[in-house]
Specification:
The protein has 2 domains: about 150 residues, Quinone Oxidoreductase, Chain A, domain 1; about 140 residues, 3-Layer(aba) Sandwich (Rossmann fold), CATH 3.40.50.720. The protein has 11 helices and 15 strands. The strands form 3 sheets. Strands 3, 4, 5, 6, 7, 14 and 15 form a 7-stranded mixed β-sheet that branches. Strands 10-9-8-11-12-13 form a 6-stranded parallel β-sheet, with helices on both faces. The N and C termini lie close together (about 10 Å).
């Protein structure tokens, strides 16, 4: 089979398409023939060697994908079942992947393989950030800061289904259109020097209850000033250090909370993805695909996902 292999950490060029032996499942494992794989920012950090936990070399990147089961001993997930994968033992930038049953979920017929590959990290992260770390409640006001990417769109859809009032930011006209289409009541261009005042005005000066922050090193200081009393910022992404004034937190009794889906999935991952599966079946969740890139061009996918103009999910196709 064909797979992307990384033999050394470094630039996107280290992602090499190779012919490797077909996978053979051990007892209790599920073998999936993949049709698409999701590309996530965390995979670029790992590939560069700049992540806190690094795999042994060589390795195949990826944890998200979708395809058809080729081998299974699990009665609820028989051979031939369309599935999406949220955790892989062998990586998903490949034509086959091995999984444990808790990382495989049926893919409804109304959802494409490419959309299925967009589920794992984006929707898992958004659900964990909103409901477990952000403790979102119906009627609260949510700001998704950087809402046009994969996690942002997932958060918009989940929040809409949960009855939140939703604001979102993006940096391009196309991104702003996507955010509006996905249920945001108001959208703001974060390149506009006046956008912070516009957000505060849209709340009547009260502030927002929850902020999902994709780029904390740029925005966290301003996020604090946008919070309502006892508001929460959930940090989903950051690319460096940031300086803040804690007094803004003190006068609001506000919180800054970090999130790591890798910690969440160790205990509550099944619950998270059951919630997501229900949303897929009901039609409340509908992943948006921004770019479809052939498996052999994985390096291009890694270059594109780190741009600030991401719109929808990037997936690799087999």
């Amino acid at each position: 089979m064909k797979a992307i292999r990384v033999s050394r950490f470094g630039e996107p060029s280290v992602l090499e398409l190779q012919d490797v032996p077909a996978l053979s499942p051990a007892p209790g494992q599920i073998l999936v023939r993949l049709h698409a794989a999701g590309v996530n920012p965390v995979e670029t950090y790992i590939r560069s060697g700049e992540y806190v936990r690094l795999p042994d070399l060589p390795y195949t990147p990826g944890s998200d994908g979708a395809g058809v089961i080729e081998h299974s001993q699990v009665p609820s997930l028989p051979r031939g079942t369309r599935v999406y994968v949220t955790a892989s033992l062998t990586g998903t930038y490949a034509e086959q992947t091995l999984c444990v049953p808790d990382g495989v979920f049926p893919l409804p017929s109304n959802i494409s393989f490419e959309q299925g590959a967009a589920m794992g990290i984006p929707y898992g992260t958004a659900a964990w950030a909103l409901f477990n770390r952000g403790m979102a409640r119906s009627g609260e006001t949510l700001l998704v800061h950087g809402a046009s990417g994969g996690v942002g769109i997932a958060a918009l859809q989940l929040a809409k289904a949960a009855g939140l009032r939703i604001f979102g930011t993006a940096g391009t006209p196309e991104g702003l259109d996507i955010v509006k289409d996905q249920g945001a009541e108001a959208v703001f261009n974060h390149r506009d020097p006046q956008y912070l005042g516009q957000i505060k005005a849209a709340t009547g000066g009260r502030g927002v209850d929850i902020i999902l922050e994709m780029l904390a090193n740029q925005n966290l200081g301003n996020d604090i000033d946008l919070l309502a009393q006892r508001g929460r910022v959930v940090v989903i992404g950051s690319r460096g250090p940031v300086e803040i004034d804690p007094r803004g937190l003190m006068v609001r009794e506000a919180d800054i909370r970090g999130i790591s889906l890798f910690i969440a999935v160790s205990g509550d991952g099944v619950e998270i993805f059951r919630r997501i599966a229900s949303g897929l079946e009901s039609g409340e969740l509908n992943p948006v695909i921004g770019h479809r890139i052939p498996l052999g061009d994985a390096a291009l996918a890694h270059e594109q996902i780190m741009t600030s103009s991401a719109r929808g999910k990037i997936v690799l196709t087999m």
